[in-house]
Design a protein that fits this description.
By secondary structure, this protein is an alpha/beta fold. It has two domains: 4-138 and 326-364, ATPase, nucleotide binding domain (Nucleotidyltransferase, domain 5), CATH 3.30.420.40; 145-321, ATPase, nucleotide binding domain (Nucleotidyltransferase, domain 5, 2-Layer Sandwich), CATH 3.30.420.40. The protein is built from 13 helices and twelve strands. The structure holds adenosine-5'-triphosphate (ATP) and magnesium ion. The site of adenosine-5'-triphosphate has 23 residues, from loops.
Length: 368
């Protein structure tokens, strides 16, 4: 019978746990249930402070997040009216507290205790995907391209663009080597500006409504585009250490508050611009389509700007392919976990720089 797997993801936006229950059948899949459960404010704040916590606090957070992840999995099962016994594996990415691929001794650290998830659900758990790739000399990221290549790689040349906190792209298609890199900011600059302009009352520009009413400041767009990250050739990855409040203050100065709508129109346009221009700069193929996933798909102004800047390449949501927007990453980790359980390779050394193909993930067996 086609195996069922659950994927759990907590991304760079600190918005919550995205979970998906998936049936895999050869090179096709079906999402049976999916859901993003927002974090309660206190847990969100602890996660944000993750890198600065002491050992005891971090240890607590690891278990507290494990409990939440287990809850997210159990809730999906209830929703799908399915017994845990029917599920072969849970792939849990966890939450990244630290990622240092370029440190003298490269390391990465994800939390969300797999023992808790296995104990509460009775389902084997595969977690800690990134350390093995790094042990093999890779950067531990990106890992989703293995999924992209498996499920989209045999078609025409397409860009799979994910709009999480950071935006990352995989270019796949018949006859080309898979290529993947972080294009730069996804929702992170927009979210930071919204939080700052609303004094913490709002966390994102719902539907891109504020941005739609503003005017784009092309001088600011040009200044942001001068950031050295955009000239660096792939493979490359980034995070909030580059795209943060300090950068916003540097380019906007005090103008950030003058017109919230103009600020958001500018940052939203810039996010789309950095994606379109990065593809132009670094991808030596003619794209037939861009398939967008992640919470940013719900920002209609961002999607509109992307469509304008990529034209005539059509831009569509991954929903068109049966995957709800925020389910893409959990679906991918469900697949990687299934491969690990089967003892099969589950990453692309070409996109991470690992010296040899490995089986990523640590397995926590179920006790049943
Ligand atoms: N209705 C909406 N309108 C506009 N933006 C939205 C909406 N819903 C979600 N978003 C954006 O999507 C973000 C969450 O997306 P997602 O969960 O894909 O990112 P993530 O947690 O950073 O994941 P990852 O790091 O794995 O890519 C939110 O922080 C917000 O910016
Ligand atoms: Mg998220």
């Amino acid at each position: 019978m086609a195996p069922l797997a659950i994927g759990l993801m907590s991304g760079t936006s600190y918005d919550g746990i995205s979970a998906a229950l998936v049936r895999f059948h050869g090179s096709s899949l079906r999402v049976l249930a999916e859901r993003t459960s927002p974090y309660p404010e206190r847990l969100r704040q602890r996660l944000q402070r993750g890198p600065h916590l002491c050992a005891g606090e971090l240890s607590w957070l690891n278990v507290a997040l494990g409990e939440r992840l287990a809850d997210a999995a159990l809730r999906l099962l209830r929703h799908a009216d399915l017994s845990p016994r029917r599920v072969a594996v849970i792939g849990s990415h966890g939450h990244t507290v630290y990622h240092g691929p370029r440190d003298p001794l490269p390391s990465t650290f994800q939390i969300g205790e797999p023992a808790v998830i296995a104990q509460r659900t009775g389902i084997p758990v595969v977690a800690d995907f990134r350390p093995r790739d790094m042990a093999a000399g890779g950067t531990g990221a990106p890992l989703v391209p293995y999924f992209d290549a498996t499920f989209f790689g045999r078609g025409p040349i397409r860009a799979l663009q994910n709009l999480g906190g950071i935006a990352n792209v995989t270019v796949v298609g018949r006859g080309i080597p898979t290529m993947a890199f972080d294009t730069g900011p996804g929702n992170c600059l927009i979210d930071l500006a919204v939080a700052s302009l609303s004094r913490g009352r709002r966390r994102y520009d719902a539907g891109g409504r504020l941005a739609r009413q503003g005017r784009i400041d092309h001088h600011v767009v040009a200044r942001l585009w001068r950031h050295p990250y955009f000239r660096q050739a792939p493979p490359k990855s980034t995070g909030r250490e580059l795209f943060n409040d300090a950068l916003l203050r540097k380019v906007f100065g005090r103008r950030l508050t003058r017109s919230p709508e103009d600020t958001l129109a500018t940052l939203t346009y810039f996010t789309a611009y950095s994606i379109a221009e990065s593809l132009r700069r670094f991808v030596p193929h003619r794209l037939r389509e861009m398939i967008v996933s992640g919470g940013g798909v719900r920002n209609r102004t961002l999607m509109r700007d992307l469509a304008t800047l990529l034209s005539p390449v059509p831009v569509s949501s991954i929903e068109r392919y049966g995957i709800p927007t925020q389910a893409k990453e959990p679906v991918a980790f469900a697949f990687l976990a299934l491969r690990a359980l089967q003892g099969r390779i589950n990453h692309l050394p070409l996109t991470t720089g690992a010296s040899q193909p490995c089986i990523l993930g640590s397995i926590t067996p179920s006790s049943h």
